[in-house]
Amino acid sequence: MPKMTMVDALNTALHQEMEQDDSVIVLGEDVAVDGGVFRVTEGLLDAFGEQRVIDTPLAEAGIVGTSIGMAIYGLRPVCEIQFSGFSYLAFHQLESHAARMRWRSRGAYTVPMVLRTPYSGGVRALEHHSESREAYWAHTPGLKMVIPSTPRNARALLISAIRDPDPVIFYEPKAVYRAFREEVPEEEETWPIGKAQVVREGEQLTMISYGAMMRPTLEAADKLAQEDGVEVEVIDVLTIAPLDHETFSESAKKTGRVLIVHEAPRSFGPGAEIVARLVENSFWYLEAPIRRVTGYDVVIPLFAYEKAYLPSADRILRAARETLETPA
Amino acid sequence: MTQTAAEREEPVGSPPQDLSGEQLRWMYRRMLLIREFENTAQIRFEAGEIAGFLHLSQGQEAVPVGTCAALREGDTITSTHRGHGDVIAKGCDVKRMFAELYGRTTGYCKGKGGSMHIADFSQGIIGANGIVSGGLPIALGAALSCQMRNTDHVTVCFFGDGATAEGGFHEALNLSTLWQVPLIFVCQNNLYGLSQPWEETAFQCDLPERARTYHMPAECVDGMDVITVYGAVARAVNRARRGEGPSFIEAKTYRFLGHYVGDPATYMDQEEREGWRKRDPIPRLGRQLREWGYLTDEEAAQIRAEVEEELQAGIEFAKSSPKPPAADALSDVYVHFDHHGEPR
Ligand SMILES: Cc1ncc(C[n+]2csc(CCOP(=O)(O)OP(=O)(O)O)c2C)c(N)n1
Ligand SMILES: [Mg+2]
Hints:
The complex is a heterodimer.
Chain A: E1 3-4, H1 6-20, E2 24-28, H2 44-48, E3 53-55, H3 60-72, E4 76-80, H4 91-98, H5 101-104, E5 114-119, H6 134-138, E6 144-146, H7 151-163, E7 168-173, E8 182-183, E9 197-200, E10 205-209, H8 214-228, E11 232-236, E12 239-241, H9 245-255, E13 258-265, H10 270-282, E14 291-295, H11 304-309, H12 313-325
Parallel strand pairs in A: 2-3, 2-4, 4-5, 5-7, 6-7, 10-11, 10-13, 13-14
Antiparallel strand pairs in A: 1-8, 6-12, 9-11
Helix pairs in contact in A: 1-7, 3-4, 8-12, 9-10
Chain B: H1 5-9, H2 21-46, H3 62-68, E1 76-78, H4 84-90, H5 94-101, E2 125-127, H6 135-148, E3 155-160, H7 167-178, E4 183-189, E5 192-193, E6 196-197, H8 207-212, E7 218-222, H9 226-241, E8 247-252, H10 270-277, H11 281-291, H12 297-320
Helix pairs in contact in B: 2-4, 2-11, 2-12, 3-4, 3-9, 5-12, 6-7
Bound molecules: thiamine diphosphate (TPP) and magnesium ion.
């Protein structure tokens, strides 16, 4: 199996899907000639030509609106918004149209499009280039919201997203883009949208996270095993909407203690919804208050303070220990 | 002094009637200050002292300097992600700009905004802007405010060629003539929006023509010639102050380097780059000033020495300024009132 970065893995997914389905079209700013600012679309222009790999002018609302129209009429557009912070210019097209077409037409029209966009901090960039606003999309009925965490699940999920009949917002953790390599099988692999993954099994605590925060979360889990002899269960959410709460509550019923980690601002963030689902579905099994380790309710700050903002393995570890130490 | 390519290429012309030697020397000095500010920032960025993205404008200095030379106190500007030149031209102090780039408390935004969001409302600098086209409607609002408050102030909106494909551009142009606001649109057409050549962004790329369809005076000028830029903006400003509404200026210019520091810029043609470098606006004005008797070689050397000193002091100021405490990241989100209406 070749070892790939997440950029390579996403690029492979696009190549494979475009190869086997002529209706898949890639469009966005600097995606064709330049191969994308992060090089995710590199080589697609040479392989598939300018009819299928389209450099657009700066026009986010136009890019997304065009994708909706193409998706309604027989194509499978995968558009790129250069940084997730620029997607707000297309907010109206997503919120008012992409998300509502199926519902509004009683299922007659669907919008099988994917919006790929890098999100997350950790690269010392400025605000719009570092933020995590998955809650906007997850809060919008009709949009699916996916966030992979490793090269392998990124490849599998992007293929699933392209084949999905509904609009999928696909957030790529840019902090992970080139952070490490992982074996990715040559043959096609998919991962169901709407399904979380238990990536580490344990009995005493459940840690739930996703995207770029999976790394510090797993690091904290390792430390708990090494230093405290505690085996925690770690769940990678993978799909923020629709949320796979069965997997969460199954685990919570086993461990009785839950910690949630995300870098998005705390208030009304995905963690809040996960807590609510857990309370609804596994309240009687909980032995301690559910804790959240999250970003703060501010714009992600620059430089050194980015580190203070982002949940670190240490912060996660502290919260995990507090949760474990709370008497039942 | 040896002759540079630019000095051979461009004709000198005759001195402008409406600009004094002092004003012209100010333009020369400001352009040099911007150029060297950016060269310094680039070196410091590459040394890892500054983080974020750095969009530099070497080559484009004549546009902001020619424009801001036609403005006065009380006038406002909005700028872009490539905004160092615009805000220095309007009056920003390089000390506080470096401090901002270094993320220090003494920066224009206390180190929170960074390179793409430098603002100083006290000088009418409404802000650089990380979102392409973000400044256009904001400039419109500032201009409307100039008008509604019965001032004769004007607003200049700087933006790039790439922004002209965004919806906000069209909305701002349309509203500006509908409301006849004192606004001057200054498009810095450096021929690229990141990797995309501007001719590929529209079927109709004649920008003044497009502006005229919204019914405003519009012209395309040589953005490598600070005096020409000044003339066009001064005419537009006069119209705006007289209540004759908005104008549109396209200044054809070029960024000598890539889109951001680190951009390999393989999409830029080498010959094209060299051709534009020969049209460098700074040596060009230097030569004109010498020919017209406004600048001696000694004075030019002195200006350079002063600029270098100013930048050196700026870097030292930035580096010796305090870093904000981490808790600062949590402040200034909004004012939170208690039940008695007092800020908490
Ligand atoms: C809304 C939005 N889309 C995309 C970007 C990413 N981006 C930053 S600058 C730029 C090119 C802008 O071109 P132009 O307006 O010509 O300005 P220039 O960079 O040439 O100064 C792009 C694509 C952004 N900052 N904002
Ligand atoms: Mg440009």
